[in-house]
Every structure is written in structure tokens, then in C-alpha cells.
Here is the input.
Amino acid sequence: MEQHSDTFLANASKALKNSGQAERRDKIGLLAPQIRAAAIHSFDGFDELRQHVKEVRQHSLNNLDYYLSQFEKEAVQNGNQVHFARDSEEFNSLILDICQQHDARRIAKGKSMVTEETGLNSFLQGAGLNVRETDLGEYIVQQAGETPSHIVRPALHKSANDIRELFQQKHDLGARKLDKTSDLVVEARNVLRKDFLQAEVGVIGANALIAENGYSMLVTNEGNGDLCANLPKVLIVCTTIDRVLPRAEDASAMSRLLARSATGQPQSCYTSFYSGPRREGDIDGPLETHFVLLDNERSNILSSDYREILECIRCAACLDHCPIYTSVGGHAYGSIYPGPIGSVLTPLLTSLEQSHLLPNACTSCGRCAEVCPADIPLPDLLRDLRHEEGIKKLSPQRWRYGLKLHAWLARHPPLYQTLTAIGIRILHRLGRKRGRFSRLPFADGWTSQRDFPAPQENTFMQLYKAKMKQNNER
Amino acid sequence: MSGSARSEIFSRLRETGRGETAENIQRERLSLGSAPAPAPPAPEMCQAFILNVLKNQGSVDCASNRSEAVRAIAHYLYAHFHSYRLVAGNDPRLAAMPWRDAGVLPRFGSLQAGEPVALSFARLGVVETGAILTWTGKANPAANNFLPEHHIVLVDKNDLVPTMEKAWEKIHHAVEKTGRPRGIHFIAGPSSTADIEGDLVYGAHGPQRWHVILLGDVPGDAQNVARDASKPQS
Here is the structure.
């Protein structure tokens, strides 16, 4: 996984200066929560569903050895070959081996965050294979030589005009202008249709694996994943070991949460369950099917204090509701998984040393936890990672000393209250005339963007004490 | 490589697992019960299903018998393609339709390049989501769901189930006899994408239009919902 989270602050500053992208992020930050809220409002039992799915996910993870083994047995019985990979290198090599066994040159790929995590595309392309992303957003990003900026909307950072220019460069358009969004979609549909029909191998992800019957679940709106799963002669399903659920009903219950949280739909257009190669009498479908199941730290996370992060269903609601994500966008995080989920997952998949800035990309507003359909306490996990960051002395020295000083003062309330009262009185006197400060020492992060209001004469604690005294005297 | 990876991964998982017996694990899962489902938009099943299909941007027709269904299909084909041709899987229920009554010319098999319309006979209709359920096989090749420009689906009123849980009950029961099909598809609308600036466009990779015909004794109120929705907007 290529990562540059160590430059998060510089990436974020750069992103804030791109007004076009900022506008599109503002739009998502405004609209996506409304769409989600409307979907959830129309379903009275949503919280009950959330708790039910959480209990099932916890039960599955508590007994993952049992359910993964059951899934493997059923999947093999269904005619699949099941492979396990400890890390990205093993995962990519396994897939290349399968492609080479079939002399495959053309790969049609559905959306899969796991393959983004392992860098599968560049690995296969390095071996001379032609890999084509077929989800529209992923296709756009691949053509532009970029990475996805959102888990569900990979090309969120690009305008229709950017995409038009990209297609003008990459496609033979002739006199076609592609004025409307629908023209751009039709253009991609026509180009990609040929890829689906010519590909020798299809690669898809899986939203869940079902232990009781060895099926995988794939949820899409475009139908591209289903074309990848049904047209090429070989199908490879890629996911991680933690995706197993006990029963088919559990996967459907999860899809109720997923569709509403990701796009505000009661169900995505296509929810497909795949069990293996074509059966006797079938006139289409792959002749050979593989599951490649990646660990890449999941088994370690399972035994850590961060195990709840494995309950994530990749809906991206936490991104859409995060004030940091909607301000700076996905690329600023410098990692495959952006937003609150990424700020927890990335340090666990790589190292805190490489990505300790990400858990600080948080205002502790708690919106991510409120909307998370998997009920993951994201702000708590982010705080725990920041705590670890402090213990490992990864943050700048002045931050650490500042926090230590604050902690010491907070443990000595009388001194804290005296010092804040003095500070507030000084600020009150200095700012009395204008009522605000356009510059303040140690606060240029605030005053560079907006004025700081001059405080009232007394602190909250002084007012509170005065009020209590008054009450007692009555 | 995969063999040693498998042993290592399972050995790590066993360290963190609770080491419970299969019986205890199954018992614990049973005790968690089933998920709650959303309330339907109308108390009557047909009406609720039609309302949800419309919400999914499908179009709907009702037909009280097979002859009417064929006429509805003919009407749809002519309105959109000035043709009476379509492709359908080798489903005995479709083979037995009175196609000649309305001059429809079906070709039975898998959709080929240049053929714009496919017809499927759904195994079930799911009221909760307004989805239809098909599975792969001779009766409905997967290409017929995903490659046409227009996908027409017949749903027998008696095959409506209220929730996805009920759908799975029926699927489990059916596959006990026939074996597990390769692919099971819940389809809830035409293919769509909002990947370009959030603008919703239909016909991303799969069908641009999705037309559902509910077959059987559909109550009048439900028929009215379908009829009103098919009227051109003034």
C-alpha cells in the first residue's frame, strides 16, 4: 500500500486551496447526510437493526476460526478454489499466478478496496497484464492515474469538466462533445462493454462471505461487478478474512444498513450472491472460480483493543459526516482508506509511526460514531491511537509539552481557574474597544482565517460560583 | 504458499477465538434472532411491492392472466423499439406463454450482442425492497439480467414475499432439491451511477430501463397505483 500520510498537514493545506474540489466536498457534506437521514427516518427499526447486526458481527468475529473454516468447506464443495494470503505480496502473487495459468492478458475488475490496499493493479500491470477498472468512478480515477478519494464515490474530487477533458485525451471521440453527464456515462459504458466481453479473468470484491453456504455477496448499483462475475471464463473474488457472516439472512440484514447508510437507498440495484463455477446445464458464467482471502493484519487487529474496527461495513457514512474529510478530501490522508475509518485503520494496517498524524485529523465532534451503521466508537479508537502516539513520543515535542502542561493544570483546578481568570481578564481589557482580535500570539491557526471574539470579563467558573453563592444566600 | 498462509492465519485466529464447540456457536447465533425489517409502504402486498418498484425507478404493469401479460409485453416492446422481439431464458413458464396472441417473437437463450431486450420470470418478488429475485441457470442466464438495454421481469403475485428473510427461507427450500445455483440476484431497479458530480444517471453498465409486470389477481387499488404512475406527467 503506497502511503504518504506523513505529509497530511501539507496535503490538507493544498486541498483547501482547490476551490472547485472544496465546493464538491461541501456539496457531499451537505447532501449525503440529508439523503441518509431521510432513508433512516423512514425505517423505524433502524437502531434495533444496527444493534442486531452488531451482535451478529461480534459473534462472527468471536468465532472467526469456526466460521471461516465453515465458509472454506462450503466454498470448496461449491467448486471453488480457496486461497489464503498473509499479506499484500502473497495476495498479488496468488492472483497473478491464476491469471498466468490461464494465459490471461485482459482483466476486468469490479470495485474492491482490498485490491486497492494491496496495489493489485500496478502489480499485474507490471507483469504485462491489461487491468481495466470497470466501476465508473474507479475507471475515471484509473484513466487519470490517480487513486480513489472516497470509499463509495472514488472520483468525487473530479468535476464533470475534468472527466470530459480526460475522455477527450484518452478516447477517440471524433466530433462527439459529451456535453451532458449522461453522455459521459454512455461513453464509458460503450468503451467498457468491450472490455467485459474480451476479458479472460474477472476480479470482484465481496461485501460479505456466508459461512452456511459458501456464497459471497456483492452489492453494486452499476452492475459492473456482475458483468465481471458472469462474462469472463475465470472469476476471482477478493476480500479479507473478517468478512464472514454465519447466514445468508445476516448478509441481507447487513445490506439493509449498507444501502441506507451509503446512498440512502432501501436496497442497491444489484445484490448478488455467487457460489462458484457454472453448473451443469448453465449456458453462461465462469468455468473456474477462486476466492483469495487476505489477512494483512486483520488477525492481529482481532486480538487488539481495536477489534471493533473490523465490524466496519465500508459504507463511508463516517466520511460524509466528518468535518475534516469534507474540508480536505480523501487524497489529503495519503492512504487508501480516508476519513475517520481510515484514520483508525491505516495506522493498524501499516504503523503508527508512518501515520500518526491521521488520528489527529479529528475534532472529536462524534458525528462519525452517531452515524456509523456498525456502531463503531470511532472517536474513542482515534483517542486511543492519539494516546499511543503520545506514549511513543511521535508527536512534536511542543505538542507533547503543551498537553502535559494542560493535563497538569487540569488536575489542579484552583490554579487552573486562577490562571484562566487572569488570562480572560487581560483579553477582555485588550479587546474591549474592538470586541475582537485579528491577531493573537499562539493562535494564528485561528486568527489567520477569522477574528477571535474578545471574551466577557468573567470566566464560566466565576459566574457559576457567583450564582451558587447568590442561591445559597436566599 | 497458500497452505502455510492458511495454517498461520487459522492458528492466529484460534488463539483469539473462544474455542467453543460448534453446537454452542450455533446455539449462540440462534439466540441472536432475526433482524427487524422496515414497514411496507402500504398494508396490501401488491400495492406495497408496486410502490417500492416505482421508488426504485422501475416501471410497472399489471396483468391478470398470461394472455394479458403477453399483450402488456407487446405494448412495451412496440412503444420503445417498434419491434416485437425479445430474448428469454429457457424457462418452462415463459415457453408456455401464448406469445402468438400478441405477435411477440421471443428467442429462447442467452442475450447476444445487438439484442436490446431480455425477459425474465422472477422466482420471487420482495415487497420490502421492491426487488425481484432470479437465479442463474437455463431458465435465466445471467447475461439476460445485466446485458440488455431494457430488462422486463414477470412476477407472479403468488411469489411475493414480505421480507428478504422470507425470500431466503424460500431459496433454502428450493435449492434443497435442485442444488445451489451459481448466482442469486436481487435486482431493485435499472443500473445506475452517481459517480460524476453526484448526478444520477440510469444505464451505467446494465439495463437503462427496468419494467416489472405483476401477474395475477392484483387488487384494484394496487392496479391504480401502477396505472397512475405510467401516465405521462403533465
The CA atoms of residues 121 and 154 of chain B lie 5 Å apart. The helical segments of chain B are 2-16, 22-31, 45-55, 66-81, 92-95, 143-146, 164-178, 220-230.
